[in-house]
Write a structure and sequence with these properties.
The chain is mostly helical and 66 residues long. The chain is 95% helix and 0% strand. It has one helix at residues 3-65. The protein is rod-shaped. The relative contact order is 0.05.
């Protein structure tokens, strides 16, 4: 194999590797966005649960006190 062929092969391999790295970076960005969306949803659900728990406790205290 000549020097030119080896250089060409190395350049081709680098270009392929760069493409793979770019695709992985894009996939990671998409996954990160999904994770952030799910985190926000969990936070909202936790807040709703906390409010409902407090409301039920207050309702129970009011009905038990009468």
């Amino acid at each position: 194999m000549g020097v030119t062929e080896r250089v060409w092969s190395a350049l081709t391999a680098m270009i392929k590797l760069e493409d793979k790295v770019q695709r992985q970076a894009d996939a990671m960005k998409t996954q990160q966005a999904r994770i952030e969306d799910l985190t926000a949803r969990v936070i909202r659900l936790e807040a709703q649960l906390e409010l409902l728990t407090q409301a039920a406790m207050i309702k129970r205290l009011k009905s038990g006190g009468q």
